[in-house]
Amino acid sequence: MQIVADYRAPLPHIPDTSTNTETAPGRSPASGHKEYRVKPAPRKVLVPDLVGKTVESAKRILRLKQLALGSIFYRESLEQAGMVMAQNPLPKKGLRVAAGSPVTLVVSRSMLAVVPDVVGRTVSDARPVLQKAGFLTGSVVPDSFVSSGKVRRQHPVAGDSARRGSAVDLTVTDASPEPKAPEANQELVTYLAAA
């Protein structure tokens, strides 16, 4: 059967249906010979409220409601990562959409990250570790009491949560060799030791 025209009209006596009106091949519409095929209209389902749910939970709910997962967009937030912050279409009271319709989600991406431990590393070794975790190297303050050239303290400390892109300040021990006593002082020390 070749479809000459596709016209959908609801049939009032059969709920949730429509008809395709087709002219039979070789016959003119004026002859009054038409074939009707009844198709169920797309099933309508309620749009669920997914805000506040995890992405995995939202995916399960969409499958159960026979809806498709649309695009996922991420927005930085101080909230827990992986939570649905917004959706489209919105779950308005009584809103029904065709089964299989996509639902777009906006999901939180944490602005916070765990500060890595860089104590005991050189500044040149600490920088890439901080960058990989999403942090900048802040001020580098020398500590002249100890001589090793390594990070002695950091702020914020390792394990704390801090905003991505913020700076981690480092206190670094001085790697220069201990200063030698001038020769005149050395002679005085030798003289005092002999006395």
Detailed description of the structure:
This protein is α+β, with helices and mostly antiparallel strands. It has three domains: 33 residues, no CATH class; 67 residues, 2-Layer Sandwich (Trypsin Inhibitor V, Chain A); 61 residues, 2-Layer Sandwich (Trypsin Inhibitor V, Chain A). It has three helices and 13 strands. Strands 1-2-3 form a three-stranded antiparallel β-sheet, with no helix packed on it. It has a three-stranded mixed β-sheet with strand order 5-8-6. Strand 1 and strand 2 form a beta hairpin. The chain is rod-shaped, with a radius of gyration of 36 Å. The N and C termini lie far apart (123 Å). 10% of the residues are buried. The N terminus is likely disordered.
